From TrEMBL:
Keywords of the record: Metal-binding, Zinc, Zinc-finger
Ranges where the Reverse transcriptase domain occurs: 14-290
InterPro entries: DNA/RNA_pol_sf, Rev_trsase/Diguanyl_cyclase, RT_dom, Znf_C2H2_type
Domain annotation C2H2-type: ranges: 478-508, 527-557
Pfam families associated with the record: RVT_1
Domain of life, per lineage: Eukaryota
Official protein name in the record: Reverse transcriptase domain-containing protein
GO molecular function per UniProt: zinc ion binding
Annotated PANTHER family: REVERSE TRANSCRIPTASE DOMAIN-CONTAINING PROTEIN (PTHR47027), REVERSE TRANSCRIPTASE-LIKE PROTEIN WITH RNA-DIRECTED DNA POLYMERASE DOMAIN (PTHR47027:SF20)
SMART domains on file: ZnF_C2H2 (SM00355)
Metal-binding as UniProt keyword: yes
């Protein structure tokens, strides 16, 4: 029985009777990693990584699929974490659009970025099972989750010590994020039960009341006034305690966007349980900087700072001579480029900002190619020498992929982007404002896209016009030199291999084979010595350089510099080869009447005129003698 058949039989048995799930699937090996901040003696500055059994993780992913088929439809559409066809870009885009529309309509919006203290480790498991039953998840799936969470033991690496985990979802598991989304959705639905009293109104094709966005445990609450925001945070703190969680008030921040409606001009505050929530002008939301005035410059500066740090770490690797150029290009493409263009598809990039990003990319190209100065190699040459896409092209493709995904889902992100913030007074929108949707229209024109749904953003893995040529289709003109053997071959090395292996007479048969393949060997490209009086020919440029050093040391540079002397190769056509041998090829004559010198190439005539006649065949003028400098 194959391995996959045994695994399938085991999984089916565990699904029918969850009590038969092996206990080893609930055990985890714990590795602690330093967070690179704070004292190394403080245990709080380490992150625990839980390594689970691989066979058990496959079964957990099956259980998670069955749970999410039922729960994903009922979870709030504003949850973008650990769900199919959703990403951080959509949540960031919604926040940017709300801020921009609030400023354009001269309205007032308050944003709060809530941080939860140990969210995944604090959930009571009995509450989790109740919420799963309310969502009508499969009974076998609930029992399987219970069985995998009972006796959930963690073992410290290289130690016999272990500890029992009785709260929260399993760290490092496949089903953990989905289970957290289920219970967190329940908490937020209780918090915003009276949806007409919370959030802001967005008017478009539909009237939408937006009050919060989620990405796993990263929560952004949106209200129209500071008082409503304080009420929402108090309700949230109360509901979180019912489920064993709480807010981290020290890391929770809030931001006021647009026109403040307070008449006395006094600065407003938000107090939660006697603790004042800090007000900020900019905040890093899901890794992208959000500002209260909608300015994109901090986003670009943050990307440049992270890009420089990444480039500094990669510099020894890019300068290494033991790594191929193609590998270095992949390193830049996989490690530097994502840092540069993360989150940039959610905003409109100005030309000055694009130039700054390109300057950093060009510096990475110079480091890779070994240039120390900008004057050594121009930007166009850098682009031609390295196969790396520009930042603008990469961001453009990412923006179009995001828009295509939003169109296909037709969810909250698309509806919000196509709507406007409701304002009490109708204000005229500034003409200079560049909308994200207008940028999408420009991108579609640049990429010549008429229908976004039919557009394929992925490059084909192969050339559709390429027709592979099989080895068996080659012409076999070389016959084995043995009289009793009638085999034919397409290449000399194949025939030599046959003679060595099948006839066991290596010396005799190899020499005869070389004689039979003389015509075949003449067709190989050869590098000819650039000196007119030398007829040496070599298969590679390296042997030609060695010949120039030994035989023509004064003219060694002529073979090294490819722009002065190109490698002359014998034509593959047999007629031209015979013509050169028989002397019937076209010859170049010396222009001087008393000289009967004839050479095969014009370059040889140029050198002949320069050496013998001191005449330049290019300018048709005599060569000036070199002036001797006086020695003082």
């Amino acid at each position: 029985m194959a391995l996959w058949e045994r695994m399938l039989e085991l999984y089916n048995e565990c699904w029918r009777d969850p009590l038969k799930i092996p206990k080893e699937w609930a055990e985890a090996e714990v590795i602690s990693l330093y967070k690179n901040k704070g004292s190394k003696k403080d245990p709080g500055n380490y992150r625990g990584i839980f390594l689970l059994d691989t066979i058990g993780k496959v079964y957990a992913s099956i259980v998670n699929e069955k749970i999410m088929k039922v729960a994903d439809v009922k979870i709030y559409d504003g949850q973008f974490g650990f769900r199919k066809e959703r990403s951080t870009a959509e949540a960031i885009l919604i926040v940017r659009h709300v801020i921009q529309e609030t400023i354009d309509q001269k309205a007032h919006t308050v944003l709060a970025f809530v941080d939860l203290a140990k969210a995944f480790d604090s959930i009571p498991r009995e509450k989790l099972y109740e919420v799963m039953s309310e969502m009508e998840c499969p009974a076998n799936a609930i029992q399987s989750v219970k069985q995998m969470m009972t006796e959930n033991v963690g073992y410290l690496k290289q130690s016999k010590e272990c500890f029992l985990m009785e709260r929260g979802v399993r760290q490092g598991s496949k089903e953990g994020p989905g289970l957290f989304n289920i219970i967190f959705d329940k908490i937020l639905k209780e918090t915003f039960a009276d949806s007409n009293e919370h959030g802001i109104v967005m008017k478009g094709k539909e009237v939408i009341r937006l009050h919060h966005l989620e990405y796993a445990d990263d929560l952004c609450i949106i209200e129209s006034t500071v008082k409503q925001m304080e009420t929402s945070l108090l309700k949230l703190q109360e509901n979180l305690r019912k489920y064993g969680m709480k807010m981290n008030l020290g890391k929770t921040k809030w931001m006021s966007v647009g026109k403040n409606n307070r008449a006395d001009g006094e600065e407003e505050k938000i107090m939660i349980e006697g603790t004042e929530i800090e007000r900020v002008k900019e905040f890093s939301y899901l890794g992208s900087v959000i500002t209260e005035d909608g300015n994109n410059r901090p986003v670009i500066m943050n990307a440049l700072q992270k890009g420089r740090q990444t480039l500094a770490r990669l510099k020894p690797v890019l300068q290494s001579r033991n790594i191929k150029m193609r590998t270095k290009e992949k390193i830049i493409d996989c490690m530097l480029m994502p840092v540069l263009h993360y989150g940039l598809e959610t905003l409109v990039i100005r030309k000055t900002d694009h130039d700054k990003l390109m300057a950093l990319l060009n510096s990475a190209r110079r480091i890779t190619l070994g240039y120390n100065d900008r004057k050594e190699c121009k930007v166009e040459e850098l682009k031609n020498k390295m196969r790396i896409e520009n930042v603008s092209a990469r961001v453009q493709i990412k923006r179009m992929r995001l828009w295509k995904r939003m169109q296909r889902r037709n969810g909250l992100a698309k509806k919000i982007v196509e709507s406007k913030v409701e304002a009490k007074k109708k204000e005229r929108k500034p003409a200079h404002t560049k909308s994200w949707l207008r940028q999408i229209e420009r991108d579609m024109k640049d990429l010549n896209i008429s229908n976004i749904e039919a557009w394929n953003s992925r490059k084909p893995a192969y050339d559709p016009n390429y027709k592979p040529r099989l080895l068996g289709e080659r012409e076999r003109n070389l016959k084995c030199p043995n009289d009793h053997c009638e085999r034919k071959f397409a290449a000399v090395n194949e025939m030599n291999r046959h003679v060595r292996n099948d006839h066991n007479d290596r010396k005799k048969e190899t020499s005869e084979t070389k004689g039979e393949a003389k015509n075949q060997m003449e067709l190989i490209e050869k590098f000819r010595c650039p000196m007119s009086d030398c007829n040496k020919e070599y298969k590679t440029k390296g042997w030609l350089l060695r010949h120039m050093k030994e035989c023509h040391p004064s003219y060694e540079d002529m073979a090294v510099k490819g722009d002065k002397v190109k490698n002359t190769k014998i034509d593959r056509n047999a007629t031209s080869i015979n013509a050169q041998k028989e002397g019937t090829a076209e010859m170049h004559e010396c222009p001087f009447p008393n000289c009967n010198k004839k050479l095969l190439t014009r370059k040889g005539i140029i050198k002949h005129c320069y050496k013998i006649h001191r005449w330049s065949a290019i300018t048709n003028k005599p060569v000036r003698p070199r002036t001797a400098h006086a020695i003082s």
